[in-house]
Design a protein that fits this description.
Blueprint (H helix, E strand, L loop, with lengths): L19 H4 L4 E5 L3 H14 L4 E5 L2 H10 L6 E4 L8 H10 L8 E5 L4 H10 L3 E4 L4 H16 L7
Parallel strand pairs: 1-2, 1-3, 3-4, 4-5
């Protein structure tokens, strides 16, 4: 680590030897999305970025709950859309955050809804982030990269 005396003490410049790949760990991600195009786009981003995270896909909240009950290990994070059939994102979140064995899993909303009521309700339930899906692929790639980098450098609970 290099500290430049011309920069205020609360800013630190990291040496080039400390690369993102050395800091990141592989995540187990539960990706809940009913739109096939969005699923393809998410997986394309992972491939483009060269990330080897394990992705488990569910088409809606109901399918995601079944997946969570059947798996021996929990995901590190959940990324989900709000507007889905059967059990929507908010209903899924309420169940997830009420379950003592699952409530610690960070849930990140990835949606087109910028409805302030939805955003407030999601934060009240206990989400870890609310990301709007951008229209441009490059912006989408950038947001997904930042989300995954952030969570892959966090210490997460692994029961």
């Amino acid at each position: 680590m290099v500290i430049n005396s011309n920069i205020p003490i609360n800013y630190v410049i990291f040496d080039s030897e400390l690369t993102e790949s050395k800091m990141q760990k592989t995540l187990k991600i539960l990706f809940i999305e009913d739109d096939t195009i969005e699923v393809i786009k998410f997986n394309r981003v992972l491939k483009t970025l060269g990330l080897n995270h394990t992705i488990v896909e569910a088409e809606n909240g109901e399918e995601a709950l079944v997946t969570l009950k059947e798996k021996e290990t929990n995901p590190d994070i959940v990324i989900l859309d709000l507007n889905m059939p059967k059990l929507n994102g908010i209903e899924f979140l309420r169940i997830l955050k009420a379950d003592e064995k699952l409530q610690h899993i960070p849930a990140i909303i990835l949606t087109t809804s910028n409805n302030q009521t939805d955003i407030l309700e999601c934060y009240k339930i206990g989400i870890a982030g609310y990301i709007l899906k951008p229209l441009r692929y490059e912006d989408y790639l950038d947001r997904i990269e930042k989300i995954l980098f952030y969570w892959s450098t966090n210490e997460l609970i692994t029961p």
